Amino acid sequence: MSFKLFRRGSARCIGLLSAFVTILLCLYYISIGQPNPTPISETGAPSAALRGSPLSGLTGFSVDGGSSSIIHQQKQQLVIASNQKKSSETKSAQTSVSPEEQSEEQYTNSNWGDKCYELIQSNTNITASEEHSKFDFQPEWMRSKEYWDRGFEERFDAQKKDKQRPPLKIIVVPHSHNDPGWLKTFTNYFQSDSRQILNLLVTKMQEYTDMTFIWSEISFLQLWWDQAHPTKQRALKRLIDAGRIEITTGGWVMTDEANVHIYPMLDQLIEGHQWLKNNLNVTPKVGWSIDPFGHGSTVPYLLSGANFEGTIIQRIHYAWKQWFARQQSGDFIWKPYWRSRKDKDSEAGSLLTHNMPFDIYSIKGSCGPHPFICLNFDFRKIPGEYTEYSVKAQFITDDNLESKAQLLLEQYARTASLFPHNVALIPVGDDFRYNKDREVDQQYQNYKKLIDHIMANRRLYNADIRFGTPSDYFEAIKERMKDHTPGFPTFKGDFFVYSDIFSEGRPAYWSGYFTTRPFYKLLSSELEHQLRSAEIVFTLAYNTARQAKRENAIKIYEKNYELIINARRNLGLFQHHDAITGTSKAAVMRDYAMRLFESTQNMVKMQESCLELLLQKGQPRHHGFLLSEFERDNFNKLPRKMPIQMANGDESTPTVPAGEGGAGGSSSSGSVGSFVLYNSLAQKRLEVVTLRVQHPNVKIVNDKGVELNHIQINPVWNITDTYEQGLGTSVSGTVGRIRTSTRQFEVMFVAELEPLSLSTYRVQVDEVNFKRNIATIYCDDCTESQPASVSPPEEIESSPTSVFEARGKPAGDIQLENPHMRLLFDEKSGFLKTITRKNQKKELLKPLQCNIKFAAYRSAQFHSGAYLFKTDPEQSEAEKEVLEGYTDMRIIITSGPIASDVTVIYGPFLAHTVRIFNTRTHLDAAIYVENDIDFEPPPKNRETELFMRFVTNIDNIAQAPMQRDPLKEPVDAATMPELPVFYSDQNGFQYHERIKVPAIGIEGNYFPITSGAFIQDSRLRLTLLTTHAQGAASYEPGQLEVMLDRRTLYDDYRGMGEGVVDSRLTRHKFWLLVEDLPGGQHVTQPPSYKVLSQQAQQLANALRYPPNLYFVSNLEQPELAAALLPLVRLLPKGPLPCDVHLTTLRTLSDPELQLFPSASALLVLHRQGFDCSVSAGRELSMEAICPLSSKGLGNVQLGRLSLHTIEATSLTGTEQKSSRESYHIRSLAEISLEPMELRTFNLTFRSEV
Asked: Where is this region: Disordered (predicted)?
């Protein structure tokens, strides 16, 4: 009966229950005489936390304020008890308890929600993909390049007669767009322009007392501040405090929004905001993102989390510009795409957004709908400069004042007519403007005359105009719209792909830069990984040293902290919208790459020194004994894996090749090598690790001292490593390129790594069992039959087949198989054809067609370049075969106990590997794909846009209603086009549905992905995960493709002035996953929001943040081996929940001494949404690695550190967040996160244990 009552959820029931709980509690307190309240669990009984606070370090910390605060807390507790549904984060009682007892306790957070949840799409007035599919992409106004037509003019005239309409209000915003690198390097721009602009501002604005200005790029501001005279610093501070200079966005750069991963996107925002707080004591409130090429919905989410009031965007598709103008919807509330079923209408993550109504942010393109008139109002005239505006514009004199004011005001009024509130924001500026003394005077004085004239006759003009800032604009429109119905419309979706029309009078799609220069995009994700790994381990090591009073270690960390600051700034700089996009000149790209490379090196060294401290027992006595497995020569080569050095043997042994028996020449049986695996993720993980060794006769021992049963010894091929000439039997020419090395071997094994841990593994000589672990090779021309003359004479003896049995490739198609699936490859091309999965009884299911195809689009000359993508309209076939020109094609099959793979090599152009695993874990469900791509020096492969395409029989067709506007043409089922739909990730943070729009060709249907994409039908989902940003598309049903690299010889006329010909050898890594969807998926109402499965999300994290491997050198010192801990758990009380990703744990700089670390760090947590119902099969589930739970974070302990305080802050850590916590949080266990949510907490560590 009680169940029925609860199910009906009657109000009476809840009332009775709450009263009952209240009485029980009071009795309970009285009986115990316990002053501190206890958290209330779902049942109302005191939860486990009464017996032990989840963080032992917090036992002594309670909220100040004596008994009054206790009574206040009790009241709060009773409210929570009687109102479970609305309860905020519960507070835990602080009773000290022994650590042993604590570790057994489980803290349950009742607000965490279910372990499996469904996300649904948020309710909004406008959904981007729905509107976009209905646009007219070849409008009549294309030739004139202006959408303002008679309809707009008539509406404008009608508004002038409307007595109800509020009067015209104009806010003029002088600005200068400073690119931190584009045609010149960052430093060169600073020296030639930006320093001068900032100097002029602080001097001139003291003279021109009503002039305003905005500044966005903190990278330039920091450089200026560090070199500016204190009087200038003070002047700037006064102008900012007075609100006359507004800092907009306040990121390190104005970030690109297509290619940037969530980690560096947030990190550069934190870096900018922390610098502003420490130096100018200001926190930005308004976003200004006017130059990124298309806008995503991640930036507004982050700005909303940083407590912003609004943001301004500029570059969106010309059809969107017209639509927003026609609908008067250019100011809208941008909402996240998802919500959980329980929040009906949450404001979290939403942000008021202003779309600038015209083409571009220059004066010509932004004063109103008619650029030829706006040109008259750009008053820059510098001797020696001849531009369209300097010829056309006339200075304002008493004679022309009235006519010019009238002309300008008509443009401004037309701009404001596109909004219901009749307020216009007018930017006055352009790239690197106000860099000349003369220009500041010209612009200010002429605009000042116009403004003064209009204000003097404001009754006549019925207008209000003044200099202002974006904050003034948002304040004005909120004021005017607060009583207006309807209010601001709501919007979900994004603005990719951007297309301009004003340049040539025909559409030009900016989808090339999603893939341009992949080598640099990969360098960025490499630094992102190393910086994140270093940040986390630095915070833990530095505070461990502080609490243990290790003076020497503290000095070293304080000295080296500056390297972390530089790495943050170099990574942040590269997220600029002309850097990671690959759209700067080649010399500028090299400058960026040098910065990324240097910081990557420094962050690897930083990890080494931090891990050294954490690995040693007691007082750290040893230094410099860790060494990265990668050698990085310089930025334009791929990092090289080095072989581990085995100690105790004769030093000369490593170079002796393996003898006939396969045992390493004279390597002594006692030799041993040791290495550390650092897992920077906060979950347990299984990882296939590969290690280079110098002899094949080895075994691997894990951190518990247990020998691993399953290892595999693979050959190292001298294919891509053409610069490793000395290491194998390779000589130049095609035959020599493909030999196995006799001096290096690869050991592959499965490592089980604890969450956030350092595990020490050992390699030992194994004379007995190693042969069973050696992989078998099948290939036609790497066997004995090769002429002896290929090898240098002394090495003929030790031909690679002495270690590896190389057999001829069997005839017919190639098969790879593991317990979960069977792959079939074409015998001629070597590319994958089908995937056949097995059911739980290991019977084969129906094969899934999955052809992998490499081909390329031919670039349209002058219309496809660094920015733009367009296929050559002259050619009958859009695609070209790229592999036909390479005759020396090889297929190599490797088969072993852990992994089997097929590698296809097409000359120097492509080495493509597909690998499956046999580990008896969830990894067996995934297929690993790796491509080494080298376009070779130009003119080879010119006008080539290379892609990898998966052709499947998955029926990814969009639902019918989206496809057609019934008013335009009657629906006929037979003619309904089948439009493929795919899901592309955005910034590694969220997924967007992409439905093909047939009217705009392939270039308008290519979308940016940062970490993955998937296609699905009612039964299956095919997910592709990647390491770095690239373009992706699904242009035909069943197909998913990603662009790999591009070479276009000509400039595309968007300002860069060069083609893209500096491609280098790049290595692209992917996971491919085929998963089942729950049977019979129907269209749900409201529609669900699609996200990855738990397994796909884990694989994506693992691909982005692989475990770092460090060799332990000088192991011959016996005391070093004794001093090292075999396993260090930095989360000793257990992992974070499966879907909670530790985005970063970032030490804050000391506000007084900014090059030194403080005792505080920002903890950023991201609850990555995942779909429980999608999985690769029950026997391959993630339960073993990461069981799902609904308990919340549980007992989180960071190393052995004790915490002093925990504060919930805004996303960038600059302000305390008041949304859910009314005061300091007592323990991390109290934190709640909604699915998909990103939150920041400021942790302050104690100075003693």
From this structure: 81-108, 645-669
Which domains does the chain show, CATH number per domain? 166-494 (3.20.110.10), 515-642 (1.20.1270.50), 850-963+975-1104 (2.70.98.30), 1136-1248 (2.60.40.1360)
Report pLDDT for 1085. Answer: 73
The pLDDT averaged over each successive group of 10 residues in the chain (1249 residues) is 46 62 60 42 32 34 35 37 36 35 59 88 96 95 93 97 96 98 98 98 97 98 98 98 98 98 98 98 98 98 97 98 97 96 81 97 96 96 93 95 97 98 98 98 98 97 97 98 92 97 91 98 98 98 95 95 98 98 98 98 98 92 93 92 79 35 44 95 96 95 94 82 40 52 93 97 91 92 47 39 80 94 96 94 92 96 96 89 89 96 94 96 96 90 95 91 49 72 98 96 97 96 98 97 97 96 96 89 77 96 98 79 93 94 98 96 96 86 84 92 94 80 76 94 89
Buried b (16+ CB within 10 A) or exposed e, 248-281: bbbbbbbbbbbbbbbbbbbbbbbbbbbbbbebbe
- What span, in angstroms and rounded, lies between the C-alpha atoms of 993 and 984? 7
Q: How far apart are CA 559 and CA 806, in angstroms?
A: 54
β-strand partners of 426: 172
Q: What is the 3-state secondary structure (H, E, C) of 654-685?
A: HHCCECCCCCECCCCCCCEEEEEEEECCCCCE
Angle between helices 150-161 and 318-327 (to 10 degrees): 30
DSSP 946: E
User: Position of tokens 């006769």?
Assistant: 697
Phi/psi at 993 (5° precision): -80, 135
Tell me the HSE value of 550 on the side-chain side, using a 13 A CA sphere.
19
Contact 44, 90 (CB under 8 A): no
Q: What is the DSSP secondary structure assignment for residue 46, as one 8-state letter? A: B
Q: Is 879 helix (H, G, I), strand (E, B) or coil?
A: strand
Question: Letter for the amino acid at 490?
Answer: T
Exposure on the CB side of residue 68, measured as CA atoms within 13 A: 2
Dihedral class, residue 1199 (left if φ above 0, else alpha if ψ from -120 to 50, else beta): left
**Rounded CA separation 1050/1083 (Å):** 47
Q: What is the spatial distance between Cα 941 and Cα 945, in angstroms, rounded to a whole number?
A: 9
Cβ neighbour number for residue 70 with a 10 Å cutoff = 15
Spatial CB neighbours of 155, under 8 Å, sequence gap ≥ 6: 417
Helix (H, G, I), strand (E, B) or coil at 445: helix
Q: How distant, in Å, are the alpha carbons of 719, 811, 892, 1133, 1136 from that of 808?
A: 19, 9, 10, 53, 49
- pLDDT score of 9: 47
Neighbours of 998 (CB within 10 A): 12
Q: Do 714 and 745 contact (CB within 8 A), yes or no?
A: yes
Active site residues per annotation:
291
Pair 715, 742: CB distance under 8 Å: no
In whole angstroms, what is the distance from residue 123 CA to residue 118 CA?
15
Burial bucket for residue 401 (CB in 10 Å: 0-12, 13-18, 19+): middle
| Cα 156 from Cα 465, distance rounded (Å) | 19
Q: What are phi and psi of 404, to 5 degrees?
A: -65, -40
Supply 186's token pair.
């960052």
Alpha helices in 575-692 (DSSP H): 586-615
Q: What is the CA radius of gyration of the chain?
A: 32
Encoded tokens for 742: 């006799």
Rounded CA-CA distance 394/391 in Å is: 8
| Cα angle 471, 349, 1011; round to 5 | 115
Q: Which residues contact 575 (CB under 8 A, 6 or more apart)?
A: 252, 253, 255, 256, 260, 264, 265, 268, 524
